[in-house]
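Sequence and structure are no longer studied apart. To make this concrete, we show below a single chain and its fold as tokens.
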Amino acid sequence: MEPVYDAVITTARLLWLAEGLKFKVSGVENVPVDGPGVVAINHTGYMDFTYAGIPAFLQGRRKVRFMAKKEVFDSKVSGPIMRALKHIPVDRGSGAQSYRDAVDYLKRGELVGVYPEATISRSFELKDFKSGAARMALESGAPIIPTVIWGAQRVWTKGHPKNLGRSNVKIMIGVAEPIEPAGTAEEITARLHEVMGKKLLELQDAYGEHPAGEYWVPARLGGSAPTLEEANRMDAEEQAAKAARRAEREAGGEAS
């Protein structure tokens, strides 16, 4: 029993009810009933992780330990909660410790949630994947559980206002068959990208209307979201700007 995690789940379900969110979940049987699993999730919005644990919860009330950026743990508000839920802080400047922590969790039979894309996809298409999920699977012997979410970007995503009121948004979650840790990290990563890409197309086809020009609809489907190439350029420009600001702060610190 984990009273804090159980309380958070209850609170989340009440909030989803108040928002009128409509969930359709498929592939729950692909989540292992027990034992470890690397839950690989596509990243389209800030609330993805709150929905990504639903299949595991439906599979025997299992809980997922999510890898999240260190800044969330540094907050006086969210930090104590994240630690109580046994999530894993990720320092993007030095990820070795978070990787070791994740592998340790997996070896203890836990489900660990990771974002292979690392950052939110502004295009809502799959970005290139990092190899961390595959390496964790290989080192721990845990299968990868490909998990795709569609519709979460309508609640809150990068560059757009929050939509946390009574939105009645439909959110689809699909879990594909597990990928066993066999082969090289590069081969497993390529396979994971292929499987999640197919699942994403499947969910989009089943979702219903994608209104032309809507910000949450990919350019491929007639929406106003940037293309993957445009989004990658925007991400690169943002990272360059952050690096410049960081260098400026460090230079200012040395000068003082």
